[in-house]
């Protein structure tokens, strides 16, 4: 592994505003990006992954495949290898190199270095032995490992990680793709937020951004982002609220099996809230071994985070306080997107540039109004 290189010479196009992508053929123009990341030699990564053996493959995303590797010193790593035909990978690679190297928090996955050699572009991260949160929440043979104490710790850990991005890091960052498969679990089941390929930086007094190309995972996107391409810290708050309800219920937002087949998880929880039967949503894998007042508060916070209007949602600093105290909370209004049907408008089309699968989740590309 080589260290001390002051700059990465990457072939990227900076004509696009922010970090929005275009076609690879237009992006491959020389751009110089400052980074303090260590460089890994390609031969080191080939040896660590046993020449990218299929037995070491951990998963596949829009960026490309992810492999487990073991360095010569015995340290395990995760290697994200940019696919040569990836439509989103070039911009994600650029984004992660620019962002994650500057971030340090116990609830964020740590980027260890990169490899840019020959035709290869790869990112190396700390290895998370328990993989992603969704593999525990939504698999019957694993969800029993998550008792309430651990679920609550995961909720609080995710909240602290997002708060760091929004308020406490050297940059103000909007993640834009928070979901269960982007929360990884270390050996002690501590949550770490990953995948900053779609993240955006806010500068100065900026409180909101917009894009005409909405890229995200339906079920986690806030209404203002999904419908109009508007994003802010409150967009991440909405996604966090969905995560909270999924962690408590053990059900996917888009796959909730309630008596009403048209309701998603948010809608199902809202109906139970109005009926005074909130505890009915609790994952049966937890049995009865949970403090009902804490679960009720968790659901309450989750519903406040998924409010229709961004102004009605709390900030992440508010959320951390709410989760750590017993102060009275104001009642939630009817939340957004309570039905399973995807949002549509006369000016938008689902899958404007196609649908693709990432970690068994559907990523939707919408043309915003």
TrEMBL record:
Its main location: membrane. Residues 52-337 form the Protein kinase domain. GO terms for cellular component: plasma membrane. GO terms for biological process: immune response; signal transduction. It comes from Nelumbo nucifera (Sacred lotus). One of its GO terms (molecular function) is protein serine/threonine kinase activity. The lineage of its organism: Eukaryota, Viridiplantae, Streptophyta, Embryophyta, Tracheophyta. Keywords: ATP-binding, Cell membrane, Disulfide bond, Glycoprotein, Kinase, Membrane, Nucleotide-binding, Receptor, Serine/threonine-protein kinase, Signal, Transferase, Transmembrane, Transmembrane helix. This is Receptor-like serine/threonine-protein kinase SD1-7. It is a single-pass membrane protein. Coiled coil: none annotated. It comes from the Eukaryota. It is found in: Cell membrane; Membrane.
């Amino acid at each position: 592994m080589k260290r001390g290189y002051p700059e990465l010479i990457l072939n990227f196009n900076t004509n696009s505003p922010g970090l929005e992508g275009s076609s690879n053929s237009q992006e491959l123009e020389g751009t110089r990006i400052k980074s303090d990341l260590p460089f890994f030699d390609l031969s080191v990564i080939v040896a660590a992954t046993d020449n990218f053996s299929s037995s070491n493959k951990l998963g596949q995303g829009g960026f490309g495949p992810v492999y487990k590797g073991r360095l010569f010193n015995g340290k395990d790593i995760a290697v994200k290898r940019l696919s040569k035909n990836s439509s989103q990978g070039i911009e994600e690679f650029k984004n992660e190199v620019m962002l994650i190297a500057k971030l340090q928090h116990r609830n964020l996955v740590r980027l260890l270095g990169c490899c840019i050699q020959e035709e290869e572009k790869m990112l190396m991260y700390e290895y998370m032995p328990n993989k992603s949160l969704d593999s525990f929440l939504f698999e019957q043979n694993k969800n029993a490992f998550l008792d309430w104490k651990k679920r609550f710790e995961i909720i609080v850990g995710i909240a602290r990680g997002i708060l760091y991005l929004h308020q406490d890091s050297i940059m103000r960052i909007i993640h834009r793709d928070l979901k269960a498969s982007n929360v990884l679990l270390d050996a002690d089941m501590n949550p770490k937020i990953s995948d900053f390929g779609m993240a955006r930086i806010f500068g100065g007094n900026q409180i909101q951004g917009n894009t005409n190309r909405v890229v995200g995972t339906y079920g986690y996107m806030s209404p203002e982002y999904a419908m109009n391409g508007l994003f802010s810290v409150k967009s991440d708050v909405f996604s966090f609220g969905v995560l909270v309800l999924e962690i408590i219920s053990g059900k996917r937002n888009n796959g909730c099996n309630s008596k009403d087949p048209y309701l998603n998880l948010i809608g199902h929880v809202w109906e139970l809230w109005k009926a005074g039967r909130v505890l009915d949503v609790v994952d049966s894998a937890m049995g009865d071994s949970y403090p009902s007042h804490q679960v009720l508060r968790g659901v309450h916070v989750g519903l406040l985070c998924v409010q229709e209007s961004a102004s009605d949602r709390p900030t992440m600093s508010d959320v951390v306080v709410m989760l750590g105290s017993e102060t009275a909370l104001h009642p939630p209004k009817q939340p957004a997107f309570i039905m399973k049907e995807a949002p549509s408008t006369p000016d938008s089309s689902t899958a404007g540039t196609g649908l693709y699968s990432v970690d068994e989740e559907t990523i939707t590309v919408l043309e915003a109004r």
